[in-house]
Write a structure and sequence with these properties.
The chain is mainly alpha-helical. 70% of the residues lie in helices and 10% in strands. It contains eight helices and three strands. A three-stranded mixed sheet has the order 1-2-3, covered by helices on one side. The chain starts with a helix and ends in a 12-residue tail after the last strand.
Length: 289
């Protein structure tokens, strides 16, 4: 995230200079989005620091959901940027202005775009590796910025080739509308996380495979599996049915094996196993897949 902050400062400088040199409202709109990138990266860094704190007396499951707050702030800031871009574009439609020094402006924007592309890919990979909503959101935002810049540059090239100055604000409008959809998607994803959404399908499938093999080998049964993602953390709640004649100590040993196995399967997870004698119908939560 520190890398994202440094690169955001560099791209803001490059794009603002390019916009000032050319007078292009398309490049100006692109620069405004980069300012939002910087604010989002700063909020993301704060969220990561909070999320890294261990559980305490007031937060028994840790602070991992702070990352969803970061994604919400980023989504909101993107929407604010989109409104500013659309307003600027409409003003330029009413008061057209020629574009100047195109070659220098394009060169600066290309450098900024390559920086965003590289850092965006790094952040997304890190987000997947660490299961970080904040890193993933910021990386995808940067890649959206890349496509935004590509569109702006293509539009400026068309303006230069055709002399149609109206294309510049029209492209800026398109950029603003595209950014609105990006902000909406980020907000929706962060809200789903705050609503304690179940784990992704691939992780549920991995849990299902482990439990199926364990049940067949150990002579137990599983009647309910409930999961939730807390940012990068995973919480799994399982009902395991065992033969009625088993002792509490023996059943507990099997529960430990299940907890250790799911932690290995998911990379890390906090699993709670509720033990019941076989034959009881579990009525709480979805049935085991």
């Amino acid at each position: 995230m520190w890398l994202a902050i440094v690169v955001s400062l560099a791209t803001i400088s490059l794009k603002l200079v390019a916009a000032a040199i050319t007078g292009s409202v398309g490049l100006l709109s692109d620069a405004i989005e980069s300012v939002i990138n910087l604010v989002a990266a700063a909020v993301g860094l704060w969220a990561l620091k909070v999320a890294a704190k261990p559980a305490d007396d007031n937060h028994h499951f840790g602070h991992a959901k702070a990352e969803y707050f970061s994604a919400q702030v980023e989504g909101t800031m993107i929407l604010v940027a989109a409104i500013a871009i659309i307003y600027t574009a409409i003003d330029r439609l009413i008061h057209p202005q020629p574009i100047e020094q195109v070659s220098i402006g394009l060169a600066l924007s290309v450098v900024a775009t390559l920086l965003n592309l590289l850092v965006g890919m790094v952040l997304i990979r890190a987000g997947q590796r660490y299961r970080s909503a904040a890193l993933d959101a910021d990386g995808r935002h940067l890649l959206t910025d890349v496509w935004t810049t590509v569109g702006v540059l293509a539009g400026i090239a068309l303006v230069t080739a055709t002399g149609w100055e109206i294309l510049d604000p029209i492209i800026a409008l398109a950029v603003g509308i595209n950014i609105i959809f990006t902000g909406y998607r980020l907000l929706r994803k962060s809200i789903q996380g705050l609503l304690s959404q179940a784990l992704p399908d691939d992780e549920l499938s991995a849990i299902d495979t482990f439990l199926t093999d364990f049940a067949a080998a150990k002579g137990v049964d599983f009647t309910s599996v409930r999961t939730v993602a807390f940012g990068r953390d995973r919480l799994v709640n399982i009902v395991m049915q065992v033969p009625g004649e088993w002792s509490v100590d023996h059943s507990h040993d099997y529960a430990d094996l299940v907890e250790e196995g799911i932690a290995r399967t998911l990379g890390a997870a906090e699993t709670v196993v509720h033990i019941e004698p076989m034959g009881i119908t579990t009525r709480v939560g979805p049935q085991w897949m």
